[in-house]
Design brief:
- The complex is a heterodimer of chains A (575) and B (285).
- With 575 residues, chain A is an alpha+beta fold.
- Chain A is built from 16 helices and 20 strands.
- The longest helix of chain A has 21 residues.
- The radius of gyration of chain A is 28 Å and the shape is elongated.
- With 285 residues, chain B is an alpha/beta fold.
- In chain B, helix 7 runs parallel beside helix 8.
- Classes of the chains: A alpha+beta (575), B alpha/beta (285).
- Strand 13 of chain A pairs antiparallel with strand 5 of chain B, so a sheet runs across the interface.
Chain lengths: 575, 285
């Protein structure tokens, strides 16, 4: 079991934005809080809240979007500092890194001394944003949660007193062999496997210790590979495959660029192709890798290498992201390591390779081939048209048809994980129904449930996706959305421009509509409105006031038009 | 394995009797292989080659599903809703769909009609000279490609589907059709102006008359719509079929509908609308 030291910079997503700890600031991703300052936490903002809920609890909270590249770039000084202690530093994600501590601990005179020295070095590297927690234990999982414990113990007593990020925290060192005991008191959520944790919770388990007491054989029989992985973690055993082998040299994949690449996104694209090759090669040999080194070299011979680890399998797009982060951090580094030329060489070296036991597909998933086909075609189109041109829709919520969905570039999402998550939502819902009660009553409960319409379990119910109807939203969404809206003209029967007064009353009935600049005039057959809406009236720069109408024209087609700032706009068609 | 196959063949020989006679003194190798081939041939070939559709669309097609490897065109005023409805069945059953060059596609309406957006990828309109390459790449990866016509950015007018539409070169079109056939996908052309696609598509879904319910002169809102849909085509369709559909219905879903009472004009709701409008005018006077 490797003695491992983990360095955790808590709340890294918000810290990377360079804000002060005492100010309430929260970083959001997909409308959920992912990180919050201690000041915000004191005001009641928690990770996982929606934006509205967060703003309801703390109206002055500042809202920031997540910026992964920036997080990775600003984490680079920490990694440089750690490199002074050990050449083999592995990064799990920006904000969390680990190194094997046996050698350095002997050199620096003991584990506690090493932890103190590393804590001081990282705090110095971070400057004003300093305050990192250090944990030392057997294996990465225990070390990581020891660091977590160190951070939370510090923050409870002294963190926000001076408005800084707290610290220096007292490092937590778990004695050799004491990891299972340390882990047994932690909550199940530490496993970070939501579907499994939910089921375990319903089975009455609350801590890792209780889970670890279950016989491994039964856990594997019921929960498969995922259950086995989590059980090993919970019982404080190394989760890395025990039969890890040193990879033969030819497993690494490399690519030379001539002319050298000038932009990071080009490199990320190349990395995706490289990662595909690497996966193919590993798959062919029945291997899987949990740690990979990314080596980059410029045309002037400067080289930069970093180890990345991942609990599961690193997918191709996840690897491409890490290449992007690493190169971004390299370009942003302030000391003498900055590259001076374009990127001429990129290599992915699998570092820790084990026999692939295969990821067990859920009962409800298993459409990975289709996903991979789609991802490949999407990546191909992205090379033709640019990364922004291929996108997937993500619900954002909004009152108007053009605000309800956002196009997220394909490169920024992991479609495989997304499809699995969608399947997991369905799977977890079914699983939670299945494990409803003890044996004898289960069947009865199952029979008592009225079978839903066929196929309804397949598709996600829109109501489940966390989208309560917005106040003021039109009940029937239009099939064609013009974004931005197109100019239009609306006349009444006398041929004069239709107006809506300040109280939302119409000057006359609409009789004729011209859609688009210089579009033909069409008679109005039926109409409804105005539905006035005034948004963000408290914000002088973003306030909008509009009156919406539906008009059905002589050809039987219904349109949505609105009056805003004295002009008529054509915003949607019910095509 | 061969031995097992042989046993099955013997079974076939003894029970089928009719067309193919097996020799009594021994089973000849060729006959047994033929029979084996017969026996192991997939029995659901026609089924395999269609994509499942939502129930209301089933009656429009002779084979009850969207034949794989075909091109389809969706036309008329309700083309986009119709395209979303066509895609909903296959995507709900696990296929992936790409939407190419249709920035106006109303995602909320499509989701309400039953299209799961988890398996939908959106592609912005490419410049016309790259259109064929992009479409070909998408056909490789997606069972269903919904596409608008190639449009040149400088001549297109927002809100008008047909403005600035460019023609697909005959060679490109032929290659795309061949590709669709080879990859067993379906290419759906949404609201293309005539003349942009030099080939004839295999299937045509045209939305013709439509009647909105729930809206009058100054009251209500667009609640549900009946659309007359005509499906015609060359492969798998045969004669043209005509159905009235709720597109969308009261609950947002697509369903078959009865023809409106007065389909000549827009009499149904219009008449009601006029009555209400008159009443409203009287009140305001």
């Amino acid at each position: 079991m490797t003695r491992t030291l983990a360095v955790l910079c808590g709340d890294w997503p918000v810290r990377a934005h360079g804000v002060a700890a005492g100010v309430p600031v929260a970083v959001f991703e997909a409308n959920r809080v992912v990180s919050v300052t201690p000041g915000g936490r004191a005001a009641g903002v928690q990770v996982g809240l929606r934006r509205r809920e967060a703003q309801a609890r703390c109206p002055e909270v500042e809202v920031l979007e997540r910026d992964l590249t920036r997080e990775a770039r600003l984490f680079e000084p920490v990694l440089s500092a750690l490199n002074r202690f050990s050449p083999l530093v592995e990064v799990s994600r920006p904000g969390l890194a680990a190194l094997a501590s046996r050698g350095p601990a002997r050199y620096f005179g003991g584990e506690l001394a090493l932890a103190d020295a590393i804590g001081a070095a990282v705090d110095e590297a971070l400057g004003a944003q300093g305050g990192c927690a250090v944990g030392l234990a057997d294996g990465f999982f225990a070390a990581r949660w020891a660091a977590e414990a160190a951070g939370s113990a510090g923050s409870s007593c002294e963190a926000t007193a001076d408005g800084g990020w707290g610290g220096p925290y007292r490092p937590v060192v778990v004695e050799r062999g004491a990891s299972p005991e340390f882990l047994s008191g932690l909550a199940l959520d530490c496993l970070e496997s939501p579907g499994l944790v939910e089921v375990l919770w319903q089975l009455g388990l609350r801590t890792l210790g209780e889970f670890a007491e279950l016989p491994l054989g039964d856990v594997v029989a019921r929960f498969g590979a995922e259950g086995q992985r989590c059980h090993l973690l919970a019982s404080g055993r190394e989760q890395r495959p025990l039969d890890a082998v040193k990879p033969p040299v030819d497993l690494q994949v490399r690519m030379d660029f001539d002319p050298p690449l000038e932009r990071i996104d080009q490199a990320a694209f190349a990395a995706k192709a490289l990662a595909d090759r690497l996966h193919h090669e590993l798959e062919r040999r029945g291997l899987a890798c949990s740690r990979v080194a990314i080596e980059a070299e410029t045309e002037h011979g400067e080289s930069f290498s970093r180890l990345w680890r991942h609990e599961g399998l690193l997918s191709a797009s996840a690897l491409a992201d890490r290449v992007r982060w690493q190169l971004g951090g390299w370009l942003g580094s302030l000391d003498g390591n900055r590259p001076t030329g374009g990127l001429s060489h990129l290599a992915l070296v699998p570092d820790e390779v084990g026999v692939a036991h295969g990821r067990q597909l859920g009962f409800w998933g298993g459409q990975n081939r289709e996903v991979e086909r789609a991802v490949q075609a999407g990546a191909r189109v992205a090379t033709l048209l640019g990364p922004e041109a291929v996108a997937v829709p993500e619900r954002r919520g909004g009152r108007h048809a053009d605000e309800q969905f956002e196009r997220v570039p394909l490169g920024a999402v992991d479609l495989v994980a997304r499809a699995e998550a969608a399947a997991d939502v369905v799977g977890a819902a079914i699983a939670s129904k299945r494990v409803g009660g003890p044996g004898p009553t289960r069947g009865a409960a199952g029979r008592g449930r009225a079978p839903g319409p066929k196929g309804s379990s397949r598709q996600r119910d829109p109501a489940d996706a966390g989208s309560e109807p917005w106040p003021g939203v039109l009940p029937v969404p239009p099939a064609v959305v013009h974004s931005p809206p197109v100019p239009a003209r609306v006349l009444d029967e006398d041929g004069s421009e239709l107006e809506v007064n300040g109280r939302g009353l119409l000057s006359a009935s609409p009789a004729q509509v011209s859609l688009g600049t210089g579009g033909p005039w069409q008679a109005v057959v039926a109409w409804a409105g105005p539905w006035p809406v005034e948004e963000r009236w408290w914000d002088p720069t973003q306030r909008r006031r509009r009156a919406r109408f539906q008009v059905v024209l002589a050809d039987g087609v219904a349109h949505l038009v609105h009056l805003e700032g004295g002009c008529w706009w054509w915003s949607a068609t019910f095509g | 394995m061969f031995e097992r196959g042989f046993v099955i063949v013997a079974g076939v020989g003894s029970t089928s009797g009719g067309g193919r006679r097996l020799r009594r003194d021994g089973v000849s190798a060729t006959v047994s292989l033929d029979a084996l081939g017969e026996r192991v041939r997939p029995v659901t070939m026609a089924e395999d080659q269609t994509l499942p559709l939502l129930d209301p669309f089933v009656s429009l097609l002779a084979r009850g599903g969207l034949p794989r490897g075909c091109t389809a065109a969706v036309q008329g005023s309700a083309a986009v809703s119709l395209a979303a409805g066509l895609a909903a069945g296959p995507v709900a059953a696990g296929s992936w769909a790409a939407i190419l060059g249709l920035d106006e596609f109303g995602l909320a309406a499509a989701e309400r009609a039953g299209l799961p957006l988890d398996r939908v990828v959106l592609v912005s309109p490419p410049p016309p000279r790259q259109w064929a390459a992009v479409a070909a790449a998408l056909i490789d990866g997606f069972d269903l490609v919904l596409c608008g016509p190639p449009r040149s950015a400088e001549r297109s007018a927002p809100g008008h589907f047909h403005a600035g539409a460019a023609r697909v070169a005959p060679g490109d079109a032929r290659r795309l059709v061949a590709r669709v056939r080879e990859r067993r996908g379906v290419l759906v052309q949404v609201h293309w102006p005539s003349g942009c696609w030099p080939e004839a598509t295999d299937l045509v879904f045209a939305s013709q008359r439509s009647v909105w319910e729930g809206i009058g002169e100054g009251w209500g809102h667009c609640r549900a719509r009946r659309v007359e849909v005509v499906a015609s085509g060359r492969r798998g369709a045969g004669r043209s079929r005509r159905e009235w559909m709720w597109l969308p219905g009261d609950d947002g879903r697509i369903a078959l509908a009865d023809a409106p009472v007065d389909v000549a004009g827009f009499g149904g709701p219009r008449r009601v609308a006029e009555a209400h409008g008159a009443a409203a005018r009287v009140r305001s006077a």
